[in-house]
Amino acid sequence: MPPRLDTLKNTEQELRIFRARALLALAVVMVLTGLLASRLVYLQVIEHDKYSTRSESNRVRVEPLPPTRGLIYDRDGVLLAENRPTYNLTLVRERVDDLDRTLERLVSLLDLPEEDVAAFKKRSRQRQRPFQPALLMSDLTQAQIARLAVNRHRLPGVEIEAQLLRYYPYARIMSHALGYVGRINAEELKKLDTGRYAGTHFIGKTGIERFYEDALHGEAGLRKVETNARGRVLRELGRQDPVPGKNLTLTLDTDMQQLALELLDGRRGSIVAIQPESGDILAMASAPGFDTNQFVTGIDVASYRALQQDIDLPLFNRAIRGQYPTGSTIKPFVAIAGLREGVITPEKVIHDPGYFKLPNDSRRYRNWLRWGHGKVDMERSLAVSNNTYYYSLAHDLGIDRLQRQLAAFGLGQRVAHDVQGESRGLLPSREWKRKRYNQPWYPGETLSVGIGQGYLQLTPLQLATATATLANKGDWVKPHLARKIGDAPLPDELPGTPEDIALSDPDGWDAVFNGMEKVLSGREGTARRTGKGLQYRMAGKSGTAQVFSLGQDERYNAEELAERLRDHALFIAFAPVDDPQIAVAVIVENAGGGSTHAAHLARAMTDAWLLEQGHMPGEDDSDDTAGDSAATARRRTEER
Amino acid sequence: MPRATLSRLLNRHPVRPPDSGMSRRKSLWENLHLDPWLLVLLLLLVGAGLLVLYSASGQRGDTVMAQALRFGVAFAVMAVLAQFSPATFFRWAPLAYGAGVAMLIAVELVGDIGMGAQRWLEIPGVVRFQPSEMMKLATPLMVAAYLGHTGIPPRLRHLTVCALIIGVPVVLIAMQPDLGTSILVASAALIVVLLAGLSWRLIGMFALLLAAALPLLWINLQSYQRQRVLTFLNPESDPLGAGWNIIQSTTAIGSGGVWGKGWFQGTQSQLEFLPERHTDFIIAVLGEEFGLVGMVALLALYLVIVCRGLWLAAGAQDTFGRLVAGSIILTFFIYVFVNVGMVSGILPVVGVPLPLISYGGTSSVTLLAGFGILMSIHAHRRLLPR
Question: Is the dihedral of CA A393, A394, A395, A399 positive or negative?
Fold first, then answer.
């Protein structure tokens, strides 16, 4: 028996001690329970909102639904940019048993080149949210997909995921105008609206793809999903569908663009064709081009370096960024300048001894024909491309008036409505020279501008725009590449359209047009060989731009010069003269004289547009007739 | 409360229930040697626990059945132990204690290593056994038996013996290493000493000594133990690692609000954000699905059980019985406090299950064995000579 009964007193005392302590213990129990209860009140009542939010964000994941990028069509509905399904290899690490072994297997299955394996493995180790697939490789080939499918059971956690990838069916001929999309880089990411681009991997990098990025991209949707702690999606709680990007219809004509690139084949240069009435850019070619498709998934380093270091600069968009001296193609605009400022009339005749001399200056500014053209009026000045006439006219105008009048044609400014990365060119002025060189303007420099040399530098797009404005008799229409954004056509009057160019005597236009027509059709026309067999009235002007400056009285000898130092060949044209449907600017780098090396390219363009494509005015618009007339026209051409 | 009043109040408790006409005929419960009040409260607790477990296990009937079966065994153990007289426990205490210490030494030599600690002793094919679990009862029993023998309040030399009795198993368990259990064993035994009327002067001195020893203890902690303490102090420091448990459990409880999200509706619990949701952290499931109301109800139930236990302890026949009963019921409360405190983020994470709610057999059996001893002490009191 446990307690030997010592005394009753001891027992009573021990009982009292215990009961006192037990009561104390009960008090402690009460206090501690109260402590727990108050902690619970704190968590469940006072901080309830905070923990509710936290529990919701634990449970609910918002997944972005990227929109489908808008398609791009040419003016006739030819698809220029589409979204093709491609297949990506992804890996969910939580479902992979042995990562290293799986990777080894994949490398041998996919036949990966040695240098890609490291990057491939690195990508597989990137930190991700649990149960989120990590992208290992994009754009699998059919053979790779097949091999993966066969070995699927041995590769748990490896999945093939379909993704829409941009594809350009006419990548080589549309390269510069259309541009391309590429993966969003870190710098772009900083500027983007992350909500809108959540889930989007690609963004327009150049050209139309970049300029109309906003419309093409669309609006991202989202879905709310409930996930468990391991990130597995259990059900969809809500959904907001993405709004796909708008389809774009361009003003470009694939046939014209293709022709332009064929005409430039093997050369460096650019052809820009504009429909004067509408401002539609029908062709905007820069040669050589490149395959934009290889930029979509990311071009490999070697190919990119090859493109970058190519001496012909295939990545350079000459049509909008190439800045060239215009040579004599500036002369029609100088003539209009003279008429507007009233310093000359079409009838005024000057005598050309083969050179022009400034007062009090012994230097001779030479005509290209050393013995001179004799009596020259405005029409003849254009037809024979007389320099002396324009030295004199430029001198009479002075640089200030000349610069102002040329600027009215958009020269030296960004003229297009929706061309990404356009250069300004350079239309020199007194202020420009002071700022640039801190020197006064010398009268001799005005003469150079008058014949399209000296500081003057224009882009092919500017030259084509000025030609279109000329063809419109001064009515301005801003050139543009987009025709319709979604279903909405571009507004007729684009913002920032310059003021129309008015002549006090509208007959002045005809004088200039006649002169330009004689370039091709006149007995003395510089491009009379090109003008043979014309079935419509075509106006043009040749230009030969010096790359290599000659000293006074030096003779130019093409053979002696290295190819890259030869003159650029230029030609501007529009047709038909009485109702212009197309204006063209052609530049062929280092080709030599414009009348012999550029004029026929311009004619091929106008022929194609007017005859083959049936845009001759006054004819029945129906396709049959157009085709007939084009066929007839071709036959006629062949007969000659 | 003045001390005199207090004693008078305490002494009003019947050492022996007043004889009545019915004294000759024992009730059914008295024949079973069970306390009906405590039994009903415990069954209520276990029933509530099974409901929560059903939700916490992801509505798996088999888990609940397995647990119910374990409770069946545990209640049987309780009922059997209640049949023995306290004198038997008094007599067997030294033997159980000695055997336990021997087994702890055996574990140290040949024990299985599980979860980075040697805790299991196995006779292959027969039984797998955690001696430290048995020491949770054997140690306080031994201390109570000793102090019951020497009489209370304990003298200093008696305390030295007590320290030895407590120290040996505690150090052995801590060496496994299983700090959590060793602290629980130590506290169960220390409660006996405190209930025995350890003088306040000595309590103060020990407290000071303990405070001085804390840095020493810190140095000797295993790295995972230190991490637990550090994480407790700042759970956000490692939200995906060690802090995850606490962040998720407080989130579960807090998001439950006053009324809870409803049975099976707790997203934290059902979507597996809550770790250990059917074992150590099961109360967070209750908190999330039944809210503050459910939590307070559970705490109240525990409190009533503790009160009843203390009442029974106070009514025990002798010092040994009182000390043992008091220790058992207060240890029970410590489990509750430590578990709820840990899950709600006011105590560091230590592996203490919620008594009679958490899934798992060993702790339930130990706890109900304790309640069996408690009931025995209560039920056999009139059979004892005075």
Answer: positive
